[in-house]
Design brief:
Blueprint lengths: L7 E2 L2 E9 L3 E7 L6 E7 L1 H4 L2 H14 L10 E7 L2 E7 L3 E3 H6 L5 H19 L13 E4 L5 E3 L4 H6 L7 H9 L3 H5 L5 H17 L9 H11 L5 H4 L6 H9 L11 H12 L45 E3 L10 E3 L6 H19 L19 E5 L2 E5 L6 E3 L4 H7 L6 E3 L7 H4 L7 E3 L4 H6 L4 E3 L6 H8 L4 E2 L10 H11 L3 H21 L8 E7 L2 E5 L4 H8 L17 E3 L13 E6 L14 H4 L4 E5 L2 H8 L3 H18 L2
Parallel strand pairs: 14-15, 14-17, 15-16, 17-18, 19-22, 22-23
Antiparallel strand pairs: 1-2, 2-3, 3-4, 4-6, 5-6, 7-8, 8-9, 10-11, 12-13, 19-20, 20-21
Helix pairs in contact: 4-8, 4-12, 6-9, 8-11, 9-13, 11-12, 18-19, 19-23, 22-23
């Protein structure tokens, strides 16, 4: 039922309908407390009543709310009213790329510019291990005069992807028109699936037609995505440069490894193909992408390129064919997907039959088809602080019991059966990596870990002999490596990578972190050389992070200078107690990062702090967001990615 103007939903006053679809209705609604209008999407009763969708929606809306980028529609809130789910988002006054296209207002230059802006949004999300999964022109919102381009429906698209049995024909058609082959067949899909959809969107915006649009309906379109070579844009738009065909062919390659490996490369190639002198897309070179994604290399998934990047043109037989010039004008080659291996062809035939049957019935489902086997695991004997453990086969049910162990295991693409996490709940950066059922435990109690039936337990905490024996009685248990002295999250990731047979992946992730921090230093020169100290305020007292702490090392990676005269914690600790906070002012620093977990914390205020903190003469940055505090206290690869946005943005606002 469509709501009338003046109706109230969760305090939002409906002003007008701005869009309708199979998912529900979007309204412009007056914010209940601020002088602005928001976009309120009220989901259909059918979706709202689906228990599986509701659970996914709650989780994905929370993840979408963490995205903070000028090209992504901001998510403000979500909830349920009268049995229907709703989500409040940033309202964009203007149009969308699909409407502009159908009304004849889409030039090639404008299309390439919009693709470039959307590429920025996707690149940002992909670096945080978030996929969109419904990239299409209708989700490219355009402010008046294209002043800003926004990508909409993060979170909702992801939640929908997990729902089985949707029957809204319009929604199914939109999904199939831009769907990657791997998403249709149920094979593993990572950020390159979004890249395929972005390539489809570019084709439609340049030609006015979706790829493989033809008679035969959705079944024919779905089969074409799986079997036919990428379409040539110049067949429908002969005024386009032939180099654009090569761009689309690469973006829509059947094999993800043969596509552009990040969205910015696609944007650059499109701009160059359109006009070597164009300034339609003003971009800076793309940062390196994290090469491994949640769930990659799990059973049934093939080994990705350890470098995380594919060569611009692959030279395997049958892949390089004569044709239009390449995007950079360096030759006369363009990509055509290689003939699939026989094993893949058998799977593909079965997948086509499934897609045809499902689409013919108005339902798009995802069928889990087993892929190639895991890489061969090399048996090894691991010498650690509590003895030696022989691991002869790939662990299939890992329990991550020590601080940071869960972050490392998940970042390496392994879904553990159990994770020990403070308070019995995962921080947001780990939640977004979980795709299977995982037991989250408040402590490493042997009975609780045993209930998860692990075949390997990893506990790199300072575990004593009695605790180790209790865990080892359940399953082979590995602690820190013998002789580990300077134990950091980086050495933890490398060690766990070795345990799991993913050492190359661990090194690639560490290279990615180093490159990202270099980019942050370049982007924020104001950080460089400034002295900083991290002070922790809790209900039981005040402490300061020492120079060898994870928090100090992270900030040093951003370019800050951390004083070495703050003392040591001893026994591998991260902090030392400060009985009198006034002592901290005796050796002034440029910046003080104040991490608050005390009961009076909240809203970034000084409320409840001792007077000594007000007397500090430098810049005070108050951090009281629990996730940010937790990430600084328990660093890891995923935690660092989280801090690179959440904390860096806060620092940049105050340090200039």
């Amino acid at each position: 039922m469509v709501l009338n103007a003046g109706a109230v939903v969760a305090g939002y006053t409906i002003e007008e309908v701005v869009g309708r679809g199979g998912m529900g209705t979007v309204y412009r609604a007056r914010n209940p407390s601020l002088p602005r209008s928001d976009a309120l999407k009220v989901l259909s009763a059918e979706l709202s009543q689906d228990a599986h969708f509701r659970a996914r929606f709650e989780r994905e809306a929370e993840l979408a709310a963490t995205l903070d980028h000028p090209n992504i529609v901001a998510v403000y809130s979500r909830g349920e009213t009268d049995g229907q789910l709703w989500i409040a988002m940033q309202y964009v006054a203007g149009s969308d790329a699909d409407k502009e296209l159908t009304q004849g207002r889409m030039s090639p230059q404008r299309a390439v510019y919009i693709i470039g802006e959307v590429a920025k949004a996707l690149n940002y999300a992909h670096r945080r291990h978030l996929l969109h999964r419904d990239v299409k022109p209708a989700n490219f919102l355009l402010a008046h005069n294209d002043e800003r381009v926004f990508l909409a429906d993060f979170g909702i698209a992801r939640a929908l992807d997990e729902v089985v049995g949707l029957t809204q024909t319009g929604m199914v058609m939109a999904s199939v028109a831009y769907a990657s082959p791997e998403s249709l067949t149920g094979e593993p899909a990572d950020h390159r699936s979004d890249i395929y959809s972005l390539g489809c969107s570019l084709y439609r915006m340049l030609t006015g037609r979706a790829p493989y649009a033809r008679s035969g309906g959705m079944a024919a379109v779905g089969a074409a995505h799986l079997t036919e070579p990428p379409p040539r844009a110049t067949d429908l738009a002969p005024h386009l440069p032939t180099a654009m065909d090569a761009v689309i062919a690469k973006a829509m390659a059947k094999n993800p490894a043969e596509r552009y490996q990040n969205t910015m490369d696609l944007a650059y190639a499109a701009a160059r193909a359109l006009d070597e002198t164009t300034d339609a897309v003003r971009l800076t070179p793309p940062p390196p992408m994290p090469p491994y994604w949640p769930g990659e290399n799990s059973p049934g998934r093939s080994q990705p390129n350890p470098s995380g990047m594919a060569a611009p043109y692959s030279h395997r037989p049958g892949q390089l064919h004569s044709g239009p010039s390449s995007p950079n004008g360096a030759g006369s080659s363009w990509l055509v997907p290689a003939p699939p291996r026989r094993r893949r062809r058998v799977r593909m035939a079965a997948a086509i039959a499934v897609v045809v049957a499902l689409v013919a019935g108005g339902v798009i489902g995802f069928v889990a088809l087993k892929g190639d086997s895991d890489p061969v695991y090399q048996a090894q004997t691991l010498v650690h602080q509590r003895g030696e453990t022989v691991v002869s086969a790939q662990p299939r049910a890992v329990a991550a019991a020590g601080p940071g162990d869960g972050d490392a295991v998940l970042s390496l693409g392994v879904q553990p059966v159990a994770i020990v996490s403070t308070g019995g709940s995962l921080p947001s950066w780990e939640k977004q990596l979980v795709v299977d059922d995982v037991r989250v435990l408040p402590d490493a109690a042997p009975a609780a870990i045993g209930a998860a039936k692990p075949d390997l337990i990893i506990d790199t905490s300072d575990i004593d002999d009695a605790a180790y024996k209790a865990l080892a009685a359940l399953a082979p248990t590995i602690t820190r490596p013998q002789g580990a002295s300077d134990w950091t999250w980086q050495s933890q990731l490398e060690w766990i990578g070795r345990i799991l047979g993913r050492g190359d992946q661990a090194k690639s992730l560490l290279d990615t972190v180093a490159a990202t921090q270099s980019e942050i230093r370049d982007a924020h020169p104001a950080f460089g050389g400034k002295s900083i100290q991290v002070v922790l305020v809790a209900d039981n007292g005040v402490s300061v992070a020492v120079a060898q702490s994870g928090a100090a090392r992270y900030l040093q990676g951003l370019g800050f200078r951390y004083p070495s005269d703050l003392g040591t914690a001893g026994a591998g600790g991260q902090t030392r107690s400060v009985p009198d906070p006034a002592q901290l002012n005796a050796a002034p620093t440029d910046v003080r990062l104040l991490m608050r977990t005390d009961q009076a914390a909240g809203g970034g205020s000084y409320n409840g702090l001792p007077q000594a903190f007000s007397a500090y003469r430098g810049i005070t940055v108050i951090v009281d967001d629990p996730d940010t505090v937790a990430a600084l206290n328990a660093p890891g690869y995923a935690a660092t990615n989280f801090l690179n946005t959440a904390l860096v943005n806060q620092l940049a606002r105050q340090i200039r």
